[in-house]
Amino acid sequence: MGLSSRFRKKTKPRLPDGIRVYAIGDVHGRADLLQSLLTVIDADLARSAPERAIQVFLGDYVDRGPDSRAVLDLLIARSKSHETVCLKGNHEIFLLEVLKDPVRLQEWRHYGGLLTLVSYGITPTMNPTAEQQVELIEGLKRALPPEHLAFLQQLPSSFTCGDFFFVHAGVKPGVPLERQKDEDLLWIREEFLASEERFGKYIVHGHTPVSVPDIRPNRINIDTGAYATGNLTLLTIQGDSLMAI
């Protein structure tokens, strides 16, 4: 799916010459879909290697889908062999908070967190007691590889390249990009989605599922609900050309 010619002529956000960016939306435990897109990227790089290729992942790697652990394994391995930027999503923040406060497990389950536990070999009961919640999170701490924890703790909130600003959820209208707060970058919805502000950069984001990539004059949403739809979106950007598949 490409951008309309009308959009390209009027706006034309650009990357610096020689740079190609591959951006991938919310994975949510779908390691199978992520692996498929990494294969697509590798084939594209083999066909036409740019001077510099940057792979940007927009956060929400865990929860909801069946294999959060394998997703983190893939991303960590990818970062060792390619230039990658893995952004934090609200689900990564929630996982770190649950590790500190097991009482939040009941809240985490509404975000699909129990599937993350299962991916690490931990089988939770449907309604764990307070004592069982502590036991489950202690089990997760033991099962979580140190490199997974380090990965989660070091994720940046945003990434800028050329005229593009990559972020998980969006930005708060009326606030300069350099003064945005993590709470908005990771959680914002309607105030951002309804805004026609140009923000100073073109925003590439996920967080709010859409059936197909939502292309606007000021932003593009590439969260296509992979865990539920089986559709994980890849956005390729080079120069002022954007292509989503």
Outline the structure in words.
The chain has 245 residues and is an alpha/beta fold. It has a domain at 19-89 and 157-244: Metallo-dependent phosphatases (Purple Acid Phosphatase, chain A, domain 2, 4-Layer Sandwich). Helices cover 39% and strands 17% of the residues. It is built from 11 helices and 10 strands. The protein has helices at residues 5-10, 31-47, 68-81, 90-100, 105-109, 113-119, 130-143, 146-153, 182-187, 190-193, 226-229, and strands at 19-24, 52-57, 84-86, 158-161, 164-167, 202-205, 214-215, 219-221, 234-238, 241-244. The strands form 2 sheets. It has a 5-stranded mixed beta sheet, covered by helices on one side. α2 (31-47) runs parallel beside α3. The longest helix has 17 residues, at 31-47. The N and C termini lie close together (6 Å).
